[in-house]
Amino acid sequence: MTAQFPVTQVPAPRTPAPQALARAADRGPVAQPPGLHASLATQSRETVPGPQVRPARPDAAAPARYPWHLRLSWLLVLAGGLLAYVTTFVIMVLTGNPILLPTVLLVGAATIPVTVLLLAQSTRSGPVVPGRIVLVTVAASGLFGICAAGLEERVAGAVLGGASILLVGVIEESAKLVVPLIVLALAHRATRGGGLVIGIAAATGFAVLETMGYGFGALLSKGGGLGALDATLVLRGVLVPAGHVAWTGAVCAALWFLVETPHRGRGALALMVALLGAVVLHTAWDATGSPVLRIVVAAVSVGTLLTLVVLTHRSHGRRTVTTT
Fold first, then answer.
1. Does 223 reside within a domain?
2. What is the pLDDT of residues 214-269, one digit of tens each?
């Protein structure tokens, strides 16, 4: 007897009615799971050949630029200093008040050197050297340099007589380097790449006090007076960028370069050339009254100063971008 198994009837698929199809079309497309599109997009990015564009990191943003009023502080100081000098000098003449004399001397002697200092210090990416170090250098180098140079020149004059004029360049350039050497030894990390600014700061302190002394001497000299005072302050102020500021700035720039460069021979050569050039230019300026020679000295000094300012600003900009 053969066993018979029940046969299950599989129902045939039903064709949706036209009304159901119409209702489905009205409802729109079926919603996909929320993560489906993201996974497909990620998969497509991984499988598509070619360079991939990565989003920029937040910490890779360009460094903020130095505020314009700080970048142009040298111009503001120049305009304000000239206005202050003219105002105080006129008031002193009109009133005959000698109390204004120290103000006239200080403003007249400091305006141009401080302007040059701020020009070298202020860049698009910020100050080259911290301001507190600059201020300490100005004050310390001015006080020490003017006292040391005055004492040494007095001794040299007593020993050598008129020939001591040939040693003035050596004496003054050496006196102005004492404080920068201390700054280099104690704060090189904070002043990296700022040798020019430190040198200008040291020369600024020295030049301001020296010019004030010359101005006061012109006022008290025989045949002097307010006219001689004004002429001395104006002349020495205009010539400052061609004198102490340029010479000491160049020497300190070479000194910092020697410490920071891996090419010691090149750095030593640059320092020797800067020292010799500063002494020769200083001596030539003091030992001669030839206008032609002084114009040549001034042109060489100012040209060197401007070149070093441009190089310092470029170097500081590259260093700022690298550290950022």
1. yes
2. 999 999 887 778 889 999 999 998 899 999 999 999 999 999 999 999 999 999 99
pLDDT of residue 1: 47
DSSP conformation letters of 142-155: HHHHHHHHHHHHHH
Quote the CA–CA distance of 107 and 125 in Å, as a whole number. 29
What does the CA dihedral 66, 320, 323, 55 come to, rounded to 10 degrees? Answer: 70
Give the phi and the psi of residue 7 in degrees, each rounded to 5: -95, 125
Q: How far apart are CA 210 and CA 118, in angstroms?
A: 20
User: Tokens representing 269?
Assistant: 């050569």
Residue 153, domain extent: 66-121+130-323
C-alpha 182/C-alpha 89 separation (Å) is 38
> Which tokens belong to 163?
């020939």
Non-local CB neighbours of 275 within 8 Å, separated by 6+ positions: 173, 251, 254
3-state helix, strand, coil split of the chain in percent (to 5) is 75, 0, 20
- Structurally, how many domains does the chain consist of? 1
Give the integer Cα–Cα distance in Å for 252 and 257.
8
- Provide the pLDDT for residue 324: 56
Q: What is the mean pLDDT of residues 59-86?
A: 80
159 domain-assigned: yes
Q: Under 8 Å CB-to-CB from 307, ≥6 apart: which residues?
A: none
pLDDT band of residue 9 (cuts 50, 70, 90) is low
> Strand ranges (DSSP E) for 92-247?
122-123, 126-127
156 touches 171 (CB < 8 A): yes
Report if residue 83 sits inside a domain.
Answer: yes
